[in-house]
């Protein structure tokens, strides 16, 4: 039997005389002369050994313009396999789909697809279902990222390390590379990529291999009134939206640093400066140039330098004039705030005057720790000395001088008036009389001496008492200073002298009375 007779042929519908069915070595042949073609219910053709096509459709007429094959299926919402090309049965008796087209036109291919010709690949969709979907390959960023074979969409995730990301193809990828290969790379790392493509952080690029090199797909111009549901928009080059308003809720930049103020530089490009920052309500800038200030300026205790303030009130705790030292004052000639080195304050707040011309009016305030050299103080109404007063020359005081504590004089004290101690009874208490005999005995006990003072370089001879001897007899006349040196209140010694004279006067009166009695007795005796 011829080889073609061994093939199985099943036709479940009737075929009329306009149809010619014949067999040949290459398979089954069917010829029809009816315009409506052949209508059959089911055709099943199989061959276990033939190496030729089991089904071949040929249009012999050069003017043929119809469809070579029409497949119709009932309208159904359920997905079903419309055309299925399956592999041969395996050892388990099962088959796997090599190419499958369901009732909605979705094509599933296990071996990929190759599109040629001038049209290339055109993908459209009529519903909200994605028309083109690429399988994602995720990889963590690193110093070197190898792209495996079969990758169409590479998503690069962050590795948390600041380092460059070098993209390289695996050998298997390069071996399988064909013209028209599409690769999408999304860089979600904080650093840019190099190698296959240079992508900034957050950028997404589609690459197409043209047979010699990878070419990045540039964004096409799009005219639309509204863009909705846009998750991310990345431009490879500068993007111009024209002279229109762009309204956004939040605007972020990959370049601008946190805390810096956004500035408009040359060409309207937004940029920032490391010297101008804003944080927690505080604006920081090394310098500010303002033509007009309409409200209060609070610098929070910081310095304001090289400022020109016109027609304004200044309320400041500290006012610093750079390059100046001394006391600041307003010059009456030009109204400028200036300073003089002749007048200054030290770190302790002391006022230093190199010269003073005119009258110093302290308005009732105290002048402390003052050193007045080669000067005359006139019209002094009150001088209070808390510690010591050192007068290098003559001091002429035309008014009362009150010394609250001791007054030490190394030289002579000369006065035209009397030296007076306060002695009002209203100022005294615990008053006791000094007996005249006691006063006389105390005066007789004190030994007057001649002496020289060790501190007196003139060698002048002095007279007086020794305070140490007087203290043992009359301690009330002795004064001891803070250094332990003793002195004698000579003026108050006259009190003892007066009481001693009274005692001598009483004794003298007794003697005079005794003499008169003796004279009377002698006169009476002579008269006899």
Compact description:
The chain has 528 residues and is of the alpha+beta class.
Q: How would you describe this structure to a colleague?
A:
With 528 residues, the chain is an alpha+beta fold. Among the domains are: 3-46, no CATH class; 70-114, no CATH class; 136-216, no CATH class; 435-528, no CATH class. The chain has helices spanning 171-175, 436-445, 467-473, 493-526, and strands at 8-11, 19-24, 27-32, 43-46, 81-86, 97-102, 107-109, 136-140, 144-147, 153-157, 165-169, 182-187, 193-195, 204-209, 214-216, 260-264, 270-279, 282-284, 327-330, 337-340, 343-345, 351-353, 449-451, 462-464, 478-480, 486-488. It has a five-stranded mixed beta sheet, with no helix packed on it. The longest helix has 34 residues, at 493-526. The model is unreliable at 1-15 and 219-224 (pLDDT under 50).
Mean pLDDT: 75
Annotation field: number of helices: 4
Measured distance between first and last alpha carbons: 228 Å
SSE topology string: EEEEEEEEEEEHEEEEEEEEEEEHEEHEEH
Reading side by side through the largest sheet, how are the strands ordered?
8-10-12-14-15
Strand-residue proportion: 15-25%
Radius of gyration: 63 Å
The percent range for helix content is 10-25%
Query: Unreliable segments (pLDDT under 50, ≥5 consecutive)?
Result: 1-15, 219-224
Structural class by SSE content: alpha+beta
How many distinct beta strands?
26
Largest sheet: 5 strands, mixed
- In one word, what is the shape? rod-shaped
Question: What labels would you give this structure?
Answer:
single chain, disordered N terminus, 22% strand, 26 strands, 4 helices, five-stranded mixed sheet, 528 residues, three-stranded antiparallel sheet, alpha+beta
